[in-house]
Specification:
alpha+beta; single chain; Glutamine Phosphoribosylpyrophosphate, subunit 1, domain 1; Rossmann fold; 18 helices; 31% helix; seven-stranded antiparallel beta sheet
Length: 471
């Protein structure tokens, strides 16, 4: 399961804003590994460097040196709307002259196709197949005497998830959708200001966390300082998977350190699904903290029976068929000396399609584990996400097709336990009402089209013969 993106913005006249953005994106690399980009402005124009690849692959000392100015925004991408190609990298720049903005987006707009058709009929052209360009053109087309008024107008038309950083008219904007699906926070650095998807990005560049940007809020930063504008208010629907998996464990959301929340999830699993065992291990790295929580709560020793290759999936070199056939062993290598003859509790964050989990269970069994008891921090995933998570269609979700005992037999585990929704809410220690739990319950915070195609705008654009990059 993949999250949409990471966004960052900085206004700091006395700092090297491009370099700060580079290191912030480095800290947010976990949110997207397909492409990365930075845009800056010095008042004379917008400078952009963006390409396919990891942050460390896209930027160099030379390219950062060309990104001059007092304001910068940055983006890491994982595609949830539009394919993974050069024309879809962010930040994007739209407009002309004084009517120009640069924008970076984390989330997914559920009414993007409708807005796309409307904007095309009004003469707006598109150079990408992303809902991000729909947002940018919607802002450009909006009435209003200033950018805040135009952004507010656009927010009234947008449906779905969007945390944005925007540059326009020597001002940095941070925008969070009324549901607050994706996180966004405000920090300070040496008289300047930063906006980031997660607090871990602030830590990496020496910025101080000030507060979270509220759902439905627009924050403006310029030479006059920081100002807040409340655009609209709706019921909160923060994605619960930010706590389970997406955000880094050293980030803080709603005052809760995610490492502690994940420890509490593991402890909750130990309470709900105790078992006699010799060893507890979390699947590295996503369930490491939950494994610690299960071990502490159950009194079963914590161990490390899988070593993770943290660079798998982050190369553009296609593996040879013989290597591809090795499958999950590219990512994990078991330790037979640790596992042999042991009854193992294996803690993981989630089971989505059920393609990887059976292979991991089999790895442990082949390494000599006597029993494998699977424990999952998320309740069964029965419904797809339409708010910025590339999860699966409902037909692909294993929990939508099989009962828990059937899933247990399918993955080959001796037992299987999913944390209950009540146990999950207890672990995050926040009111249930502020979260989106639709992937468990099917109760979406706003109406959605139940089968949406991430390439829909691409298909429509091809029909209109709009200028798309061939890559």
């Amino acid at each position: 399961m993949h999250e949409a993106c990471g966004v960052f913005g900085v206004y700091a006249p006395d700092e090297d804003v491009a370099r700060l953005t580079f290191f912030a994106l480095f800290a947010l690399q976990h949110r997207g590994q397909e492409s990365a980009g930075i845009a800056t402005t010095d008042g004379q124009g917008i400078h952009l460097c963006a390409d396919m690849g990891l942050v460390s692959q896209v930027f160099s000392e030379e390219s950062l040196g060309r990104l001059t100015g007092d304001i910068a925004i940055g983006h890491n991408r994982y595609s949830t709307r539009g394919s993974s190609r050069v024309s879809n990298v962010q930040p994007i720049i739209v407009g002309e002259g004084a009517n120009t903005i640069a924008l970076a987006h984390n989330g997914n707009i559920v009414n993007a196709e409708y807005l796309y058709r409307e904007l095309c009929s009004r003469g707006y052209t598109f150079n990408s197949s992303t809902d991000t360009e729909v947002i940018a053109n919607l802002i450009l087309s909006a009435p209003g005497s200033d950018w805040v008024a135009r952004i507010k107008h656009a927010m009234n038309r947008l449906q779905g998830a969007y945390s944005l950083t925007i540059m326009a008219d020597q001002t940095l904007f941070g925008v969070r959708d009324p549901l607050g699906v994706r996180p966004l926070c405000l920090g300070g650095i040496n008289g300047g200001w930063v906006i980031a998807s997660e607090t871990c990005a602030l830590d990496h560049i020496g910025a101080n966390f000030i507060r979270e940007i509220e759902p439905g809020e627009i924050v403006t930063v310029n030479r006059s300082g920081v100002a807040s504008h409340q655009a609209s208010v709706a019921r909160k629907a923060l994605c619960i998977f930010e706590y389970i998996y997406f955000a880094r464990p050293d980030s803080v959301i709603n005052g809760r350190l995610l490492y502690q929340a994940r420890q509490a999830m593991g402890a909750g699993l130990a309470e709900e699904y105790p078992v006699a065992a010799d060893l507890v291990m979390g699947v590295p790295d996503s369930a490491t903290a939950a494994g610690v929580g299960y071990a502490v709560s159950s009194g079963i020793p914590l161990g490390e029976g899988l070593i993770k290759n943290r660079y798998v999936g982050r190369t553009f070199i296609e593996p040879h068929q013989r290597i591809r056939d090795v499958g999950v062993k590219l990512k994990f290598n078991p330790l037979p000396e640790i596992l042999s003859g042991k009854r193992v509790v294996l803690v993981d964050d989630s089971i989505v399609r059920g393609t990887t989990t059976p292979k991991v269970v089999n790895l442990l069994q082949r390494a000599g584990a006597k029993e494998v008891h699977m424990r999952i921090c998320a309740p069964p995933l029965r419904y797809p996400c339409f708010f910025g998570v590339d999860m699966a269609t409902r037909g692909e979700l294993i929990a939508a097709r099989k009962t828990v005992p059937e899933i247990r037999d399918f993955i080959g585990a001796d037992s299987l336990g999913y944390l209950s929704i009540e146990g999950l809410i207890k672990a995050v220690a926040l009111p249930k009402e502020i979260f989106c739990l639709a992937c468990f319950t099917g109760n979406y915070p706003i109406p959605v089209q139940l089968e949406m195609d991430k390439l829909a705008l691409e298909i429509k654009a091809a029909g209109k013969q709009l200028p798309y990059d061939a890559k």
